[in-house]
Amino acid sequence: MSLADQFQKYLTQTCTVTTFASKNEKGIRTVVTAVSYPCRQEVKQHNVINAQGQEVVARTTVYVGESSTGGLPTTMTPDDQFTDPDGNTQQVLAVDAHPSDSLAQHVAIHL
Length: 111
What we know:
Number of helices: 1
Number of strands: 7
Strand order of the largest sheet: 5-4-1-2-3-7-6
Shape: globular
Helix content: under 10%
Number of domains: 1
Strand content: over 45%
């Protein structure tokens, strides 16, 4: 079993990333797509740098693998909606892409 396969077996939960295209004249965001991903959620406080360049405390990291269509949420922004494995909508603080030859490609989403 490869290292990538071993990593994938730990992604036993599911999360959803909903991306938005824009806001209409009433300020309502228009949904582009909602995609489910295999993931693993770990609750652990740690510091991250948010999109504004500020150091903030994240409470949770969700390691996200490729969707069934092969994509990763690498272009996710704090404006997009993230639904954790427990079904709660969470604010995204930071997103780290981890492409690798030896380990399965994944994204760490800090909440």
